[in-house]
Amino acid sequence: MTDWDERFSRGDELHGGLPSPPLPQAIEGVTPGTALDLASGAGRHAIFLAERGWRVHAIDSSRVGIQRMLHEARERNVKIEAEVTDLEAPGFVLEREYDLICDFYFLHRPLFAQIRKAVKPGGLFVAAIHVGKGRFLLEPGELRKTFEDWKILHYREGESPESAHRHPTAELITLRG
Ligand SMILES: C[S@@+](CC[C@H](N)C(=O)[O-])C[C@H]1O[C@@H](n2cnc3c(N)ncnc32)[C@H](O)[C@@H]1O
């Protein structure tokens, strides 16, 4: 079992099944299409999207997280295409294009270049990732800079509204022109 498997087995990191605030904000008034949830965890964003008519592909390396998500999806009578995959594996590529990609609280910088290609023109990228010093943390301003040539619909860095995490969070909603 991985560290994340253990956390999900204990019922940690579920956030009451509620999505991070930028996601509901991002899809307000948007016609549902295809969505990719990167590092989907126990599925709070994938399920939120699927219940609103999005066709969701969810990827995470935690088998337990994926199992929890699929169990909850069955209970709620929605379908999610789930994949247990290491997003940091050398040679990993996003092979499809999506109307929406989301990344909540997972940082692997090489994915940004892939996300930029895999969001369809007119599609959205939505993220909330911690900021600070260290390999798994964004530099201040880094997320905004990475997508500065897209249309930024929302950007905020500061205390996370959803957890008492010791690092601030960068939130981004951006549209590929
Ligand atoms: C902080 S949790 C966030 C989960 C979910 N996005 C959310 O906001 O509820 C980080 C997630 O990243 C996943 N993860 C960590 N390293 C990964 C990797 N190399 N490939 C795929 N998923 C990974 C973990 O299994 C965990 O589900």
Summarize the topology:
Elements: H1 3-10, H2 22-27, E1 34-38, H3 44-50, E2 55-60, H4 63-75, E3 80-84, E4 98-104, H5 110-118, E5 119-130, H6 142-146, E6 151-158, E7 169-175
Parallel strand pairs: 1-2, 1-4, 2-3, 4-5
Antiparallel strand pairs: 5-7, 6-7
Helix pairs in contact: 1-4
Bound molecules: S-adenosylmethionine (SAM).
Features:
177 residues; alpha/beta; Rossmann fold; seven-stranded mixed β-sheet; 7 strands; binds S-adenosylmethionine
Portion in helices: 25-40%
Question: What is the CA-based Rg, rounded?
Answer: 15 Å
Biggest beta-sheet profile:
7 strands, mixed
Low-confidence stretches: none
The CATH class is Alpha Beta
Task: Tell me the number of helical segments per DSSP (H or I, 4 or more residues long).
Answer: 6
Strand content: 25-35%
Structural class: alpha/beta
Oligomer type: single chain
The molecules bound to the chains, other than polymers, are: S-adenosylmethionine
Give the tally of structural domains. Answer: 1
Average of the residue pLDDT scores = 95
First-to-last CA distance? 42 Å
Give the spatial strand order of the biggest sheet.
Answer: 3-2-1-4-5-7-6
CATH superfamily: Vaccinia Virus protein VP39
Order of helices and strands: HHEHEHEEHEHEE
Supply the CATH architecture: 3-Layer(aba) Sandwich
Q: Report the principal-axis shape.
A: globular
What does this 3D model show about the protein?
The chain is α/β, with parallel strands linked by helices. It has one domain (3-175): Rossmann fold. The protein has helices spanning 3-10, 22-27, 44-50, 63-75, 110-118, 142-146; strands at 34-38, 55-60, 80-84, 98-104, 119-130, 151-158, 169-175. The chain has a seven-stranded mixed β-sheet with strand order 3-2-1-4-5-7-6. Helix 4 links the parallel strand 2 (55-60) and strand 3 (80-84). Helix 1 packs parallel to helix 4. The longest helix is centred in the middle third of the chain and has 13 residues, at 63-75. It is globular. The N and C termini lie far apart (42 Å). S-adenosylmethionine binds at residues 4, 13, 15, 39-41, 44, 60-62, 65, 86-88, 104-106.
